[in-house]
Specification:
alpha/beta; Rossmann fold; 5 strands; 18% strand
């Protein structure tokens, strides 16, 4: 499984990277939307884990929602599974993530074993999306 982790907190990135690599996944990381899009273009991930607020991206106003829009608008990455990861575990944030097309929401702090299992399940769904030629909107 190819996993792209996008978060501006380097400790979170390191923790998740080690855990997913230990589970046998190929992992790339990014701390900004621009870096994430570059990584996604070269890696073509199965699943992207994206923080919703990316402080390092503030000058250009890009956040996890902007990353999702960019991924979905590119035919090479439109099928990728994208999970929102955020410490803002509020009903309005959950609703916004769902309405804007994230495949799910994960509250920080994460239970890493559950997250790995969830990502691997989503990877199976993503494989079906890619095989069918696009995003499963059902």
């Amino acid at each position: 499984m190819r996993v792209l982790i996008v978060d501006d907190d380097t400790a979170t990135v390191s923790f998740m990277r080690l855990a997913f690599e230990a589970a046998g996944d190929e992992v790339r990381t990014a701390t900004t939307v621009d870096d994430a899009l570059r990584e996604a273009a070269t890696m073509l991930p199965d699943v992207v884990l994206s923080d919703l607020t990316l402080a390092r991206s503030v000058p250009d106003g890009a956040d996890g929602f902007a990353l999702l829009r960019a991924l979905r608008s590119d035919t090479a990455t439109e099928h990728v599974g994208v999970l929102a990861v955020s410490g803002a575990d509020h009903p309005e944030v959950l609703r916004a993530a769902e309405e804007r097309g994230f495949d799910g929401f994960v509250a920080k702090p994460v239970d890493i074993a559950s997250l790995i299992e969830r990502v691997h399940r989503l990877g199976v769904v993503v494989a079906g999306r890619a095989d069918s030629g696009g995003v499963d909107r059902a």
